[in-house]
């Protein structure tokens, strides 16, 4: 970044940097690939924090579209390509479980994690990691599937709110809404995408929305929009 004629570094990384607009919000993100074990890579995402004029670590689950691209193809290359015969099965399964979890394909993440739990305890990455992936994916799969079991009236209410705040150029959410049922017929929703609002005359962008609805629409005061760092950027 150029500050008063002086070049100021905004991100220092080791490993490989994959740079692109991963969530199509008009801002470049960085995926830092760092060698893990054997052929495996750990991926840390960084997004631009406009208020701090710097890159910061971002939540992987806010960028499912990225993991459907390069990471998925990398895993497929290991599985189907020249490295398949030399890559231990436990490492391949761990790669797939992690990638599917970040893609939001929770059913497949659960399947691979369940397979991983059957490996000996001293096999990488270990029972604790397999268990964590399985629990996280199972819980997310449950609330994802709940969206499809909503009544027509409630689904229309959820879809209407998502559409209202969706970015004009990228109106389709990046993931299926995650839904949990509350009391009194209210459902709680979390959805990943690109969302916009104007507050106090300022244009604000978010990567996820959380809100509650009943059959009549948005429950007053329940909407919370967050950025890729988990910070609340507006409420409604």
Describe the biggest sheet? 6 strands, antiparallel
Distance between the termini: 34 Å
**Cα-atom radius of gyration:** 20 Å
**Helical coverage, percent range:** 25-40%
Strand content: 25-35%
Q: Give the count of helical stretches.
A: 6
The overall pLDDT average reads 88
Pairing-aware structural class of the strands and helices? alpha+beta
Count of distinct strands: 12
Pick out the low-confidence regions. none
Provide the domain count. 2
Structure description:
By secondary structure, this protein is of the alpha+beta class. The protein contains six helices and twelve strands. The protein folds into two domains: 2-145, no CATH class; 150-235. Helix content is 33%, strand content 29%. Helix 3 (89-103) packs antiparallel against helix 4 (106-116), helix 3 (89-103) runs parallel beside helix 5 and helix 4 packs antiparallel against helix 5 (127-148). The two termini are 34 Å apart.
Concise description?
With 236 residues, the chain is α+β, with helices and mostly antiparallel strands. It has helices spanning 64-67, 70-80, 89-103, 106-116, 127-148, 152-165; strands spanning 2-3, 6-7, 16-20, 29-35, 41-49, 54-57, 178-181, 187-199, 202-214, 217-218, 224-226, 232-235.
């Amino acid at each position: 970044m150029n500050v008063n004629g002086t070049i100021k570094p905004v991100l220092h990384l080791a490993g490989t940097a994959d740079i692109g607009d991963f969530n199509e919000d008009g801002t470049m993100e960085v995926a830092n690939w760092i060698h893990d074990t054997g052929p495996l890579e750990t991926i840390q995402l960084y997004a631009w924090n406009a208020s701090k004029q710097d890159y910061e670590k971002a939540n992987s689950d806010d960028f499912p579209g990225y993991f459907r691209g390069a990471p998925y193809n990398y895993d497929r290359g290991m599985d189907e390509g020249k490295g398949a015969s030399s890559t231990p099965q436990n490492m391949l399964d761990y790669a797939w479980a992690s990638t599917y979890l970040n893609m939001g394909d929770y059913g497949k993440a659960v399947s691979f994690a369940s397979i991983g739990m059957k490996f000996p305890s001293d096999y990488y990455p270990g029972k604790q990691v397999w268990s964590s992936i399985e629990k996280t994916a199972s819980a997310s799969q449950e609330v994802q599937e709940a969206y499809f079991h909503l009544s027509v009236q409630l689904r229309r209410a959820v879809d209407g709110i998502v559409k209202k705040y969706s970015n004009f150029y990228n109106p389709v959410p990046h993931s299926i809404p995650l839904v949990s049922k509350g009391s009194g017929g209210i459902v709680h929703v979390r959805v990943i995408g690109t969302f916009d609002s104007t507050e106090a005359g300022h244009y604000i962008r978010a990567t996820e929305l959380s809100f509650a609805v009943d059959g009549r629409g948005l429950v007053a005061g329940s909407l919370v929009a967050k950025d890729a760092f988990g910070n609340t950027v507006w409420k409604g």
